[in-house]
Structure prediction request, 263 residues.
Amino acid sequence: MSLEQLLAWIPAGHPDVALARQVNFERLPAHIAIIMDGNGRWAAQRHLPRVEGHRAGIDAVRDTVETAARLGLGVLTLYAFSVENWKRPASEVGTLMQLLKRYLRSELNTLLTNDIRFRVIGRIEELSPDIQDELHIAIERTAKSQGMLFNIALNYGGRAEIVDAARRAIESGVRPEELDEDRFAGFLYTAGQPDPDLLIRTSGEMRVSNYLLWQIAYAEIYVTETLWPDFRRRHLLEAVLAYQKRERRYGGIASAPAAIGAQ
Prediction:
């Protein structure tokens, strides 16, 4: 993706044009992970049921996924439903699952048009058969796409993922002395993918919420007060620009941030 291609999608004169021109396309995060938080508060502020916040959040998902693909990201991972979310009222869980089905059906053509490959990370086998069917259709239909990889973390938990990886390692017959960090990473849900360079959390909360615990070891964390249903292209561009101004250390000597708007 280039600046020209991104600008072709943004309406002329839109404020986002100025943000896009500041992006250094040579220093994009390879993988952005997002904790989508604030749907309930968004609804409460408007005196609406919580489920209306989840419905509004679909628009944010649509805008964020397309922006990320047009920006040229390699991987985008969204935290949609955690293993802990089953504790919520059954009516709310049911609505979330129906919204997921609706999103997959309505956005499949958009994913294909933008050459986006869809995957799910989490304990998919514990979901209802109808949800599994919808997920597999989207996975299979986009399997040949060569652009951005779009992960949805569904029935996901970071600790559960590590436990599942340990079980896979044992089942594969790997001996303890043969197991190092690189080999263990090959048993995670995200095997073969780069770790997130940038973790974004909406709604201002300072928690990682059991999300990609292994993978975010050296991720830059960006927290915005914006509630998820209000998150749009501008907010994603602002997060990328903030990331590009940081010095990444990885426990060692800092590497200077690349110049902004160098293209």
Summary: Residues 246 and 257 are 6 Å apart (CA to CA). The mean pLDDT is 93. The first strand starts at residue 31 and ends at 35. Residues 90-113 form the longest helix (24 residues).
